[in-house]
């Protein structure tokens, strides 16, 4: 898992300090200090962060809606990003690769891979039922990374798979060194931006396909040929089966309407899920019925209606 000890060296992003490195292996981590009541992913107090570290001081997470990493400030003393102080209750701060962060007395860089590390086609063979990944191997499989950890370096096979011929990839080639702003030429910056956008898009597509697979499973288990399920009931089934399994960002995106402020989403915590299913007409049919001012949505699998 990602840790300051560096025993496993694979992740979606990396935190690099003078005396520690941490590889993110989930879509969200909490930085702060450990206590008797709770622990955090990155204990900055044990790394020389000083006395001003809150137990839950900051959260770094992947924002699937905006397709980027961000930092949410939780501690009262705030965090510096590129020298700018951000305080609690402010909107999450976008994080770019090589941003310099400071929490308490501890400074470290946020790093993303400097080139696309996602390999192989997007498809069911890259998806795991467990979410978020519980191990480095699970993380690599789920995102199609095709990365191996051995001897402190990355190994990536030629086809993005676990087997076959492998080629060695240096860690600095994957994450890059914490260069100061302005040291990269425009051509390199443009290439890195394209790579990041490509990786972010594939991450989102993988998540969508996993949710679609879960919905299809529920419908096939509970519906017979020609049956329709109300979206309200489908939402209740997904909450019961997956709310404690899915990452909180996925629950927020598909099982609540928090990310959808539009009037049509009011009172419909399944609104995000409905928008997703409409993107896959080859798998789902949506039937809308109106009762007065109330609009009801029903869904069925195409295979159950054909």
Automatic annotation (TrEMBL):
InterPro entries reported for this sequence: FHA_dom, Fhl1/FHA1, SMAD_FHA_dom_sf
Xref: SMART domains: FHA
Domain FHA: residue ranges: 29-86
Primary localisation category: nucleus
A GO BP annotation: regulation of ribosomal protein gene transcription by RNA polymerase II
Transmembrane intervals: none
Cell location: Nucleus
The keyword DNA-binding is annotated on this UniProt entry: no
UniProt keyword terms in alphabetical order: Nucleus
PROSITE patterns attached to this UniProt entry: FHA_DOMAIN (PS50006)
GO molecular function, one term: sequence-specific DNA binding
CDD domains for this protein: FHA_FKH1-like
One cellular-component annotation, GO: nucleus
Listed PANTHER family: PRE-RRNA-PROCESSING PROTEIN FHL1
The protein's name: FHA domain-containing protein
